[in-house]
Every structure is written in structure tokens, then in C-alpha cells.
Amino acid sequence: MAYAIVPRATGIARGVATYMCMVPEHGVVEIGRIWLSPALQRTREATEAIYLMCRHAFDGLGCRRVEWRCNVDNAPSRRAALRFGFVFEGVSRQHRVANGRNRDTAWFSVIDGEWPGVRAGFEAWLSPGNFDASGRQRRSLSEQRAGLSEAESQDR
To answer: Looking at domain 2-155, what is its CATH homologous superfamily?
Structure first.
């Protein structure tokens, strides 16, 4: 199931992301086949698109687990998964054959018990107060999640 990523400001499709490997009976879906134009890469809108897909998977579809898989050599995708709050689970060696070569696949996930914290981090990061007048972030997504975790620890 593919989704176009269309920034509100332009109304022009600048990327695509899909739900893949959907297994409804197990409550699992993968977010993958992500392609972002250079104009969309590393933007607030790109992060919001992943947040919306995760939110729909957990809160709309009732998933227990959202997966992110990528070629182990795809360092930008691995960094993105971690930035978005996915947990690295390991590498499936020789998982696929791609372009006539063995492909090792890095696995990441967010599970339903982690989703409230991941969601809160996304929402804090996406809030207008996290950006200055020129649109620069005040705190990174990982800083937002860490700050929320610290606040929860202090509440206990």
C-alpha cells in the first residue's frame, strides 16, 4: 500500500513510502520502499510522514509491531530508523538476493508497548514551539525522546 508524500506548502508529491509485508493476523506491518526527493530529504515534512504512517499503523490499524528493514550497507536508512525511534534487532544474513548478490538485511522495530513514548517524542519534535522563526529545530528528535524519558523517570 503506497502513499505519496505531499508537503502542504507546495501541494506537490515529493516522495513515496509504503506499508509492506502486512500480516494482519499478527498485527505486523513494515514501513519501506521509501523514496524521498532531495527537496524532501531531512525535512520536517519527511519526519511527519513517517510519524503519520506509524500512528496510522498503531492507532488506526491496531498493529502490535511496525518494522523497518534495509540493506545492512544502507547507512542513511539505518540512521533514519534509529532517529525515528525504531530499535535495532539484528541482521539477517543473506536474507535476499539483490542485483545478483547476497543482501544482508538490518531489522528494526517499534512495538506497541514502546509506541506511546515514540509517539510523544515525534509530537514534541513536530510541535511548532520546537522550531525557530527560520524553521530550525530547537531540540533534535532523539533529544525530545530522551527528555521525555527523563521526565517519566522523575515522576516515578
So the answer is: Gcn5-related N-acetyltransferase (GNAT) (3.40.630.30)
